[in-house]
Design brief:
With about 375 residues, the chain is α/β, with parallel strands linked by helices. Helix content is about 20%, strand content about 25%. The strands form eight sheets. It has a five-stranded parallel beta sheet with strand order 10-17-11-12-13, covered by helices on one side. Strands 5-6-7 form a three-stranded antiparallel beta sheet, with no helix packed on it. The protein has a three-stranded antiparallel beta sheet with strand order 14-15-16, with no helix packed on it. A hairpin with a 5-residue loop joins strand 6 and strand 7. Helix 5 crosses helix 7. The radius of gyration is 23 Å and the shape is globular.
């Protein structure tokens, strides 16, 4: 953590890659003895986490039975290996196997207690404002706090004001859901913007709108539960087929491929098609190159993704955004950062984490590796103040 991060950032193995390789020196799990990193507790910095949900972020809301994209040990936080969690929980699991949502969420919920972090985690709070501290107040001959924050507790509306020298901005890539922006989208009771489980939809005729992994899961699980599924996508068939073909290591994509390749296809997949309206009584307007039509459904599930929320950063004006993309079709605007520290170039003292940082792809092998150079930079700056 004390190495010259600036110097390291100028060679092919960046600070981010260095810590990724220390955590995952190989793609397969080889046992706890294969980890080059060791952990010890030292004097704790003065920190707090405010979160509107439990640890685990968006995984708390993922479909009930959905598999992840990754082996279990790829999803772990290095200070608490998932193999140790399995042992602690009495679970007989292979860290190389794809981890199911229930186990992953249980793991993330267990981390704070295991590592002694719970007392500083404030669950059920939303940060509602973030501004530069003005005027700056000198403190012991150093600069005063950099940020003023306001947080509101969901349960009772209590508001808390606080200051911070540094902010780690880890709101996730899916904080603002995309909208179709068509009539009736939020008025018709048969339209939902989140899929959890097939038994939430007792009617026979279900329309799924999407084209990514969440929508693919919903369409497949609903089909296998006996629903009459129509699957509408704006993308061409070739693009969807590429995602399916590249995902055959996932059992539900093997299943989706077989369904769509059946001669008498049982999912009505409609490509290059858009929704024009949601009307009363389940009447949905569709439009494609073949014309317009109206079909009737019992339920509509809209799974069209989301974007990160940078609204708290408005006081700093226009942000320098990088359009992040990768082979898994992650598309998210990312904040430009200094490669040695992941500090924002626009907001000094603020560190975007995970997918929000420039050039961070979807690979969970390295997603949390940004935390190491972030903490190292914060510790260095605190030490420089004396």
């Amino acid at each position: 953590m004390s190495m010259d991060m600036v110097g390291v950032s100028e060679i092919p193995v960046s600070p981010y890659d260095t810590f990724r390789l220390l955590h995952h020196p190989q793609r397969d799990y080889k046992g706890l003895d294969s980890y080059p990193m060791r952990w010890e507790r030292r004097t704790e910095l003065d920190w707090a986490l405010f979160t509107d949900e439990r640890p685990g972020g968006l995984w708390n809301g993922v479909s009930r039975n959905q598999l992840t994209l990754s082996p279990a040990h790829w999803m772990e936080l290095s200070a608490y290996p998932v193999a140790n969690f399995y042992a602690d929980s009495g679970l007989e699991r292979d860290p190389n196997d794809l981890i199911v949502k229930q186990d992953l969420v249980a793991y993330y919920h267990a981390v704070p207690d295991k590592l002694g972090l719970s007392s500083r985690i404030n669950e059920g709070w939303t940060v509602t404002s973030l501004t530069p501290t003005s005027p700056r107040t000198p403190r012991d001959g150093t600069d005063g706090p950099t940020f003023d924050l306001s947080a509101t507790r969901t349960s009772d509306g209590e508001v808390r004001a606080l200051t911070a020298d540094f902010v780690v901005y880890a709101v996730g890539p899916r904080t603002v859901k995309r909208r179709l922006e068509v009539p009736g989208e939020f008025e018709q009771p048969y339209v939902t913007h989140h899929y959890d489980h097939w038994d939430d939809y007792p009617g026979a005729r279900v329309l799924v709108v999407g084209g990514g992994r969440s929508a693919d899961w919903a369409a497949t699980e609903l089909h296998d539960a006996g629903r009459d599924v129509t699957y509408v996508m704006r993308q061409p068939q070739e693009r969807h087929q590429t995602l399916i073909d590249n995902s055959q290591y996932l059992p539900y994509y093997v299943r989706l491929k077989s369904i769509l390749e059946e001669e008498d296809r049982s999912i009505d997949a409609r490509y290059e098609t858009r929704i024009t309206s949601f009307g009363a009584g389940g009447l949905v307007g569709l439009a494609s190159s073949e014309g317009e039509e109206t079909l009737e459904f019992d339920h509509v599930i809209v799974e069209i993704g989301a974007q990160p929320d940078f609204g708290l950063l408005k006081p700093w004006g226009e942000l320098s955004l990088f359009e992040g993309r990768d082979e898994y079709r992650l598309q998210v605007p990312q904040l430009k950062v200094h490669p040695h520290s992941f500090e924002s170039m626009d907001v000094p003292g603020m560190y975007p984490a995970g997918y929000l940082a420039e050039n961070l792809g979807i690979s969970v092998l390295g997603m949390h590796a940004t935390c190491f150079p972030i903490v190292a930079d914060i510790e260095r700056k605190i030490a420089a103040r004396g």
